[in-house]
Amino acid sequence: MPSAAEGGTDQGAAARLLEAVAADPVVFVRSFHVELFRCAPELAERFPSGLGGHHAAFVTMTKHILQGFADGSDPPALIDLLGQLGRDHRKYQLGEEHYRAAKTALAKALADAARSTRDNEFCAQAAALVCAVMEQESNRRDGPQTWEAQVVERIDHPGPTVVVRLRAAMRPQPFAVSQYLAVQVPQRPGQWRYYSPALPPNDEGELEFHIRAVPGGMVSGAVLKNTQPGDRWLFGESYGSLAAGLDAIPADQSVLMVAGDTGLAPCRAIALALALRSENPRMTLLAGARSRAECYDLPNLRDLARDNEWFNVLPVIDPTPWAALARTAVEFAKRSEVVLLSGPPMMIDACLDALRAGGVSLGKIRHDPRP
Length: 371
Prior knowledge:
- Helices cover 43% and strands 19% of the residues.
- It has helices at residues 11-23, 25-39, 52-71, 75-88, 96-114, 120-140, 218-226, 264-274, 298-307, 321-334, 345-357; strands at residues 147-157, 161-168, 180-184, 193-195, 206-212, 232-239, 254-260, 282-289, 311-317, 338-342, 365-366.
């Protein structure tokens, strides 16, 4: 298979492998990890067993890459995707020998899934391309692979939701307003989750995260149950561009932010960052919740609105909050130049469907995917 950068792929082999991986993802994941840990036993501590979310994401990403090869997708788009994977894997502190092991393991897992020798060459070349691009991008990235912050306070709210405040030695912190970060807590070593700071980067090293219990969530449950002052959290790569360009929007235009659950956090960070400027566009924040008790940060947001006449916050409280939030968003969106969506996937989907049906241009709507 010629490299993706050269524009050539064996589309037939990719399609066959995609079907094989989708048919038995458990065997594919097991084959990869058995070979990976055989080649590099020390990686077993960085990728502990029981990481169901990690395994599911690995399968999803593999299928996405194979689909791109099978469809003959734009090579730069695939390279960009692999580059993001490389940046994300910096938090595992991988060396050249680990990428060699990953290349061997991925080639074997793909070949095992194929159950035929005719696609072995494609398996080897695809694995080599994936790992080479990831390693190159990881090495190209500046800054620390990981950094730490210490918990200084926790505040419990109904929901249940906990606000965790930390202080980092690194100042300012290596992320932009509204981005989300890879986070590892000491109660769940090796298990990374993605959370959005509710404060913009600052010279005081202050961080704040809003975390709600997720049914069956091992990390969110551990945070709510066990996080205490003195805990040290580990941070990896930052992602997202929700707030990109907001500082260039003229003061005579309007921005709508639509938030649900702890998707409120990046919207709060955006408003706090803009409050440091002298002129801002008109900004309305719609905050969806099932009950008033779930509007845990409403008093702080109303204080911010009282001190900044360009900012307004409106709670949307309903037993079916995403449907109500979507209906409310349509009318506000028609009067806004930019619409930012932040919340769980069901909320994002409900809002996109309603905005599309309401005739709102999708070109002015932004939301960040998770890695």
